[in-house]
Design brief:
62 residues, mainly alpha
Length: 62
């Protein structure tokens, strides 16, 4: 559970500062980056996905 919270926090941080503050509307299309809340939520989702992919799964013993 801690790893998902950490992944969401890091993803939200990257989403807000990376996507919204740095990239912003510099490319000319502002679909995700126009609203800081949406950029943060997308960052949190990406952080959760990356943690879910990279975390090892527990194998059942038969």
């Amino acid at each position: 559970m801690k790893k998902y919270l950490i992944g969401a926090s890091i993803g939200g941080f990257i989403g807000y500062f990376g996507i919204y503050k740095i990239i912003g509307c510099s490319t000319g299309s502002c679909t995700i980056t126009a609203n800081p809340n949406i950029a943060t939520i997308y960052g949190m989702i990406f952080g959760l996905l990356i943690v879910g992919i990279l975390s090892p799964t527990k194998k059942k013993k038969d």
